């Protein structure tokens, strides 16, 4: 019985950890009345493995493939933000985006200020043919 409980605990922990990493090439994550979602599509020819998203020192996080593989052209990754004590989904907030390569070197993209709201999706695309030409633009 203890082995089953231990196994179940480990499974739940791994599931929780991996749920923060996503590669949504199929159905996109949808927001609800307590959340918003940022979708980022890679339309570039740049080699990178993660996208860092920070909000002015409040929260730093990122998105990547669960297996740590390269984010390929055409992949769409999503990050869900929940309205909670340390992250309020009301008002304006500035998001800073950066790409991380295989050596975890950071390439800053752009700062974008959004008017936040629950049950809302924000879509962006990464463009460029080289790391020096990397760009981010909002597509909705």
Structure description:
The protein is mainly beta and 140 residues long. Residues 4-25 have low confidence and may be disordered. The strands form two sheets. A four-stranded mixed sheet has the order 4-1-7-8, with no helix packed on it. A four-stranded antiparallel sheet has the order 3-2-5-6, with no helix packed on it. The protein has one domain (2-138): Immunoglobulin-like. The longest helix is centred in the first third of the chain and has 17 residues, at 2-18. It is built from one helix and eight strands; from the N terminus they run αββββββββ. β7 and β8 form a beta hairpin. This is Lipoprotein.
Question: On the 0-100 scale, what is the average pLDDT?
Answer: 81
CATH topology: Immunoglobulin-like
Q: Tell me roughly what share of residues is in helical segments.
A: 10-25%
User: How far apart are the termini?
Assistant: 51 Å
CATH architecture heading: Sandwich
Signal peptide: 1-27
Protein name: Lipoprotein
Keywords: Signal
Organism: Lentibacillus kapialis
Label this structure with key terms.
Lipoprotein; 4-stranded antiparallel sheet; Immunoglobulin-like; single chain; 4-stranded mixed sheet; globular; 12% helix; signal; 8 strands; 140 residues; mainly beta
Short characterization:
The chain has 140 residues and is mainly beta. It contains one helix and eight strands; from the N terminus they run H-E-E-E-E-E-E-E-E. The N and C termini lie far apart (51 Å).
């Amino acid at each position: 019985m203890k082995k089953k409980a231990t196994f179940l605990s480990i499974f739940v922990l791994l599931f929780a950890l991996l749920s923060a990493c996503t590669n949504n090439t199929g159905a996109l994550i949808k927001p609800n009345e307590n959340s918003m979602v940022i979708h980022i599509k890679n339309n570039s020819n740049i080699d990178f493995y993660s996208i860092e998203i920070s909000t002015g020192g409040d929260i730093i996080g990122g998105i990547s493939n669960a297996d740590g593989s390269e984010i390929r052209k055409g992949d769409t990754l999503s990050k869900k933000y929940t309205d909670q004590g340390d992250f309020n989904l009301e008002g304006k907030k500035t998001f800073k985006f950066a790409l991380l390569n295989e050596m975890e070197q950071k390439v800053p993209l752009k700062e974008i200020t959004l008017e936040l709201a629950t049950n809302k999706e924000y879509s962006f695309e990464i463009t460029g043919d080289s790391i020096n030409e990397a760009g981010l633009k909002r597509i909705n």
